[in-house]
Structure formats: C-alpha cells, structure tokens
From TrEMBL:
GO terms for cellular component: cytoskeleton. It is found in: Cytoplasm, Cytoskeleton. SUPFAM superfamilies: Actin-like ATPase domain. PANTHER family: ACTIN. GO terms for molecular function: ATP binding. PROSITE patterns: ACTINS_1, ACTINS_ACT_LIKE. The keyword DNA-binding does not apply. Keywords: ATP-binding, Cytoplasm, Cytoskeleton, Nucleotide-binding. It holds the Pfam family Actin. This is Actin-1.
Length: 345
C-alpha cells in the first residue's frame, strides 16, 4: 500500500512495510507570476516542494494545507500526482492508499479525498486515518493522549483502544509556523531584519537548530546574557548573536497570548483533554503541578517523532487484520463518497 501523510508543512510519502517514508518535502506549490502563454522554454506553470522553494523569487507560493485542513484541492491533487509520478514512480491504480487527516477534519473534506482518489487516480482501495492515532501506534500503544504539534496546528487527542475521542480533542491554531513568525518579530526587535520568504527559511533553520523550551522561563530571563547567547552563521558568512529570543519564541506554545491568541497553553490543553475523558520535561513539570499527589505522569517523545504518523500508518497497513478495513472501489460505487465514513472513524 501507498501512504500519504498530508502535513501543513511537510508531505511524507512511502510504501507500507518500510521503516520510514521514501519521500519527504515541503508541502508547497509555486505558480509562475507570468502568464502561461509567456513562459519560456524549460519553464513550467507550477513547481512543487523543494523545486518551488528554490525558485521562490519568481513564484507565488501556496500551502494547500492550512492549519491542518486542506484549503486548495487543486494544489493538493497536484502534490499527490507529483508523488505518484516523480517521487514513488508507481501507478496509482496498482495499490491501495492510506491518507492521513487532522482530528476534527470536516466530513466533506474526507469525502472529497475519496472522490479524488477513486475518480481521478482510480485507486483500488483507500483508507483515511487520524494522524494522532497513527502516532500512538508508532510508539506501540493503543491508549494514551497525543500532543500533535506540527507546522500549522496543535492538537491534544485522547485515544482509547485505538479510537480517537472527538469530544475531548483540544485544538490550538498556534504551531511551528507561528513560532517562526514570532521569532522573526523578536529578532527584528534586536536589530536583525528577516522579511522575505527566503529569509523566513533562514529563521526556521535557526529555530530548529538553536531554539529550546526553558524549564523555568522566569529563571532563564534572569540569567546573564553571555550564559544563553548563541551564534549562528548566515548564508553570507556573517555571524549573528542571539540571546533570550531562543526560548521566548517556543514559549508561545505555553503562552499563546504572546502571538495574540486567546487560548490555554499546551500543558493546560492536555489537562483539559484528560479531564474531558471517561515538550517533554517542561510538559512533565507542568502536568505534575496540575496532577493530584501520587498520580504518575509519563511523557513519551521518540527521537523519530517527526515521522511517527507515517511509521504508525506503515505498521497499521502491514497488519493482516487491516485488509478488511480498506474502502474499496465497489464500496465507492455502491455508496458514493460517503462510503469513507463506514469504515474510517
């Protein structure tokens, strides 16, 4: 089977049974700013992934997945077609496909996925699974609460015996992209201006390499500047020095008010989700502060968590018992796009 993990920032694709995805690229589509009729030889109307990133100066860029939800189906279909033709180099009608979705994804989005896959790609069978559930499978568990914070959206998802509990899911529209933007603002206050889309990628790289979550941000703010100062070499070989911005940016996950979002932080979201049910050390500390005495809290953060959802999907589709879960072409013929709701919960 083929597995497509549709993230807001990264698209992961591969074949079931593999230990990791074969193709990982930025989920972005770039269209030429000039009219198609005026394109020169060798120029394409649209570019996908890293190719679009490298030509960002002459393209208008679009992320088809925004805050975990597909907002542009034409571009999403282009990405899927690109993966089949150029990344995996296999025919869509030869293998079933498993697609991932965010918790609380609108039902019509799921139906649209089924429609495109059966009508346009002619897949023999498909399945749609919630990303957080798959991430839990990847850590060899079927019950737990998953904090899924990607590029576009953060969810806390309680899962019992492999089933997501929708009534207890909490959603926060603050994630990696928002932290990058807030980090850009903090750097600007220090005199470092990063404004273009190309410069945004530099800031994202600084964030991924140097930023950290402080165990106690108040204490960290009292530290001497030289104790927390880090250096980063820019592509033009200039070196910049960055101080408390390195932990103030990720602090947004615990204090969304920093970016103007009136919502509880991730530690409170987790607690609220647990209460509605029948980032590691810091989360553990916050959870222990809120948990009653004697309640043991354990946080699992596997090193390969960037691909946890994809790995979980690979495990799930490799199970012999999963064969009966596929939504087949005959199901689609009998029940239409709504067939997807009969087996995918």
């Amino acid at each position: 089977a083929v597995i497509f993990d549709n993230g807001s920032g990264l698209f992961k694709a591969g074949i079931a049974g593999d230990s990791g995805p074969r193709s990982v690229f930025t989920a972005i589509v770039g269209r030429s700013k000039v009219k198609p009729a005026m394109l020169g030889a060798g120029q394409k109307e649209c570019y996908i992934g890293e190719e679009a990133q490298s030509k960002r100066g002459v393209l208008s860029l679009n992320y088809p997945v925004d805050h975990g939800i597909v907002t542009c189906w034409d571009d999403m279909e282009r990405i899927w077609r690109h993966v089949y033709d150029y990344e995996l180099r296999i025919k869509a009608d030869e293998r079933p496909v498993l697609l991932t979705e965010a918790p609380l994804n609108p039902l019509q989005n799921r139906e649209k996925m089924a429609e495109i896959m059966f009508e346009d790609f002619m897949v023999p069978a498909m399945y749609v699974a919630v990303q957080a559930t798959l991430a839990l499978y990847a850590s060899a568990r079927i019950t737990g609460i998953v904090l899924d914070s990607g590029d576009g959206v953060t969810h806390t998802v309680p899962i019992y015996e492999g089933y997501c509990l929708p009534h207890a899911v909490s959603r926060l529209d603050v994630a990696g992209r928002d932290i990058t933007e807030y980090f850009m603002k903090l750097l600007l206050e220090s005199g470092y201006s990063f404004v273009s889309t190309a410069e945004r990628e530099i800031v994202r790289d600084i964030k991924e390499k140097l930023c950290y979550v402080a165990l106690d941000p108040t204490q960290e703010m009292k530290a001497k500047p030289e104790e927390i100062m880090k250096e980063y070499r820019l592509p033009d070989n200039n070196i910049i020095q960055i101080g408390n911005q390195l932990f103030r940016a990720p602090e947004t996950l615990f204090a969304p008010a920093n970016v103007g979002v009136e919502a509880p932080g991730v530690h409170k979201m987790i607690f609220n989700s647990i209460m509605k049910c029948d980032i590691d050390e810091r989360i553990l500390k916050e959870m222990k502060l809120q948990a009653p005495a004697g309640v043991f809290v354990r946080i699992i953060a596997p090193p390969e968590r960037k691909y946890c959802v994809w790995i979980g999907a690979s495990i799930l589709t490799s199970l012999t018992s999963f064969r009966q879960m596929w939504v087949t072409k005959s199901d689609y013929r009998d029940f239409g796009a709504a067939a997807i709701h009969r087996k995918c919960f």
